[in-house]
## 1
Amino acid sequence: MKLLIDFFPIILFFAAFKVWGIYVATAVAIAATVVQIGYIRLKHGKVEPLQWLSLGVIVLFGGATLLAHSETFIKWKPTVLYWLMGGTLLVGQWMFRKNFIQSLMGAQIDLPAPVWRNLNWGWTGFFATMGVLNLWVAYNFDTDTWVNFKLFGGIGLMFAFVIAQALYLSRHVKDEGDAAPKDLQP
């Protein structure tokens, strides 16, 4: 259910684009994101900062698209969001000596500091690359191709990256049996 809520705006954007075009799809994406945030607020009582950021970016760039009647703004929206997320990880690591990936996942998994650092750099690089890739598709292909890439390419690449991260993490996660004291092991 959470996955559906997370992808609700992009799925509606895609469907509206296929039926009515980029400007209606942009308005639908703005409305869907507002509904998504409202639902999360009602259901959980708290909206994560990244979700507020996403709402702000879609309202700003989607609103600019509608007001200027230029699809360029909405095409920049994913890149801005990717770069803000990657930039946050980078600034956290360099300026505050804080690994935000570890802050998010540290309660679920115990890893050595170098592994956390590699995860942080991996996600920073992934977000930077996705931002560049989005712009490349936006400026080198038609809008229909960009919308398809935004849904299928973006989600597909994210899925592939998460699988690669899981494989990397699997080398560093200890079985619960490995943590038992030596005198209790057979």
## 2
Amino acid sequence: MRGGVLLSVAALFAGSGAGTAPQGYFDLQPGVTLETGDTWIDEGKRYRLYGVQSCLRGTTYTDRSGEKRDCGEASLAMLAAYIRDTNPVCAPVAKSAGAIFVACYATIGGERLDLANILIASGFAFAALDAGGMPFHAPYAVVEQKARESRAGLWQFDDVQHPSILLSRAANERVRKGGQ
């Protein structure tokens, strides 16, 4: 069913011209409070890109000059740049207790493109995985693999790790210590 949610949202993309947002969409404009490279707050509501996991803030990668850089800040900066440069529109696709999950598209050269796909293809975000290690939206995993193979974005740095690996390690450590 998870993939079906995005497929139904994708169907909305096809039927409308590049100048107007389909009914039910809202503008994602500069000025929102970005929390991470996949999550923001606007008018007191937390939004998160469906099927995307950005780098975790506070995790690092080593750049070409040997300096440690914050991976989460790199993901956040790219999301900010895409918001500023592509005027995305978003539609809610699911809700959780903590966030409204959205599908967004950006307009580039008169074409509508999936913002999550752009972030993952550029190597500054990753396909989000469920607790079983499966992608929430399988096409994003394919895009991520292509980005990894071409060493796009953060994948060019040898010590970048998929955030799901880091989250899994943290969860396992909590369980090992008897916490939850």
## 3
Amino acid sequence: MFFGHINKIERNRYPEAILRAFDYLKNTDIDSLEAGRYPLHGDSYVQVLDLQTKEKSNYLPEVHRKYLDVQYWHRGSERMAVAVDLGNNPVAEDYSDENDILFYQSAENEQEFVFKDGNFAVYFPEDIHRGACRADETGLIRKVVVKVALSELEE
């Protein structure tokens, strides 16, 4: 997992596929977009999400196998729980190839971070993450998730 702020990116530290995601986030008027899915490059795409944060217990930890997530907090704050996937967490829902997602019942050694406007996080397949958890109070957030196809990291 990488995390930081969209205005403080050292370009020489990231692969081109992730830089494309950052460029999209920095150069797109996110406020003008409707919530939904948008193409980006190759198999990669963008999801604009308007979410209501809730208690952590309302969400399951998840991982992906074919895509990594570049998550960007455009408006509002969200608590994310993260952990390294060591393969020993109880599965709640088996992996869906169609949706590229596996849900765990719980995640061993979860750590929590609060993300605010301008923050980003990059979650790799070995990074379990559980989002939309309330920070201090429940609230609406606008978040953009760029799904970067792992095959594009090899370009």
